């Protein structure tokens, strides 16, 4: 997908949850952060000529920091995020620069997707498609989260999860195979 299509897919996702153009564009902090990320990621991955790349990356970094201060949402330009990404609520969201997030994913407030582990197990998560992460959850380490996974609020995920898993707790354990259907 090109930049415009990605932004449009994100916007459609916000519309799905009941927002109108004016509300989404001017009052929805999650959309601001996602929009800024899309522009910064495009520059990060597509502009190679240093004469343009460095000033543009610096300006998008300043824009990112402004969005981060206003919204409490930190998404680095190097993160890989698929289409139809949705940040449900304001604040406390940190996504590590090396994280990979699939298509059609939702995250709630207070979510951290970060680095953890020692030696060969040190790294960042790879999230599949249609993943829902509840409020204040932490997903950390060199793990893979399968497609259609639901991670419950206040959970700490440190191990990989198979497709369609529903996981909760600290540390998170699989409580069912009902997946994220109905939450996305």
From TrEMBL:
Gene3D superfamilies on file: Hexapeptide repeat proteins
Catalysed conversion reaction: L-serine + acetyl-CoA = O-acetyl-L-serine + CoA
Name of the molecule in the record: Serine acetyltransferase
Enzyme class: transferase
Family statement drawn from the similarity comment of this UniProt entry: Belongs to the transferase hexapeptide repeat family.
Database matches in InterPro entries: Hexapep (IPR001451), Hexapep_transf_CS (IPR018357), LbH_SAT (IPR045304), Ser_O-AcTrfase (IPR005881), Trimer_LpxA-like_sf (IPR011004)
Statement: the UniProt record of this protein carries the keyword Nucleus: no
Keywords recorded for this protein, A-Z: Acyltransferase, Membrane, Repeat, Transferase, Transmembrane, Transmembrane helix
Transmembrane domains' residue ranges: 21-44
Tree of life domain: Bacteria
Pfam family, one: Hexapep
E.C. number: 2.3.1.30
